[in-house]
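Give me C-alpha cells for this 277-residue protein.
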Amino acid sequence: MSTARLEALRLVGADGGPLRVDIRSGARPGEVRPVVVICHGFKGFKDWGFFPRVAERLAWAGFTAVSFNFSGSGVGDDGESFDELERWGHQTPSGDLADVGTVVDFLAGRGAEWFGLFGHSRGGGLAVLHAARDSRVRSLVTWAAVSHFLRWPVEDLRRWRAEGKIDVVNTRTGQVLAIYTDTLDDCEAHSEGTLDVLAAAARIRIPWLIVHGQADETVPHLEAQQLHGASTPGCVELALAHAAGHTFGVRHPWAGSTPEFDSVLDRTVRFFAAALR
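Here you go.
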C-alpha cells in the first residue's frame, strides 16, 4: 500500500545499549513532513503485530513514521526474539521515557518541526508523560493506555522486593523473563512525580485522542476514563471501542487485520491529519 522508504538506524539507549529505530517516509529530498513517533507497550516491540502496519499507514498518509524498541524491550537484532535478557531485567519506565526524548531530539536535529506521539498500553502512558513536558509535540493518540505503571498485586510486590526479581511469562514464546527491582525502585521513587501519568494528563493542552477497547482484558477501560477525567476539557476525545480487546483483535505474528483495528487506525490517521497540518 505504501511507497515509504524504510531507514533503520541505531541511537544510544538510556542504558547505554543500542536503541533500534525505524523511520518510514515518502518525503522527497528536502521535504519536511510532520513526524509521528510510535511507542510500543510492555512485552511489545516495534515489529510486533500491528506496529509496522500503523507506521506504514501513517507514512502513506503523508507523515514520517518513527518506531523503535525501548532499550529495555529485551528484543535484539533479529527483531523478534527476547534475547537481551539483562536489558529486559533492568528496564524502568524512567529509562523508557528517556528513550522517547532521545528519539525526538534526534529527529528534531534532522529538521523535524511538528511531532505527534502514538502510544499503546504502557507506551501510551509514556507518550502522555512526554507530551506533557515537550512543547514540540503538537498532538497525541493513545491506544489502551495505562494510567499508572506499577501494575502488580500487593503480594507480588512484596515477593518481588524479598526475592529481588519477579518473573513475567511471555505467552507467545513461553519464555519466563525476570525483572529485577530496578522497575520497582523507579516506580516507588517517581510515581508521584515524573511518572505520574494522571498528573501529566492534566497538563496536556494539545489535541489528544484516547482510544480504548471496552473488552480490554489487560488494561481496564476505566483507565481511559480516568485519563479523560484528568485531562483539560476541550482538548481530548475519548473513543471507546465496543467489544474490542487490548490489541483490537490483532495478534503476533501478523495474521491479518480486524474490523476493530481498521476502525481505530482510520480514526487515528484522520486525527493526526487534522492536528498536524
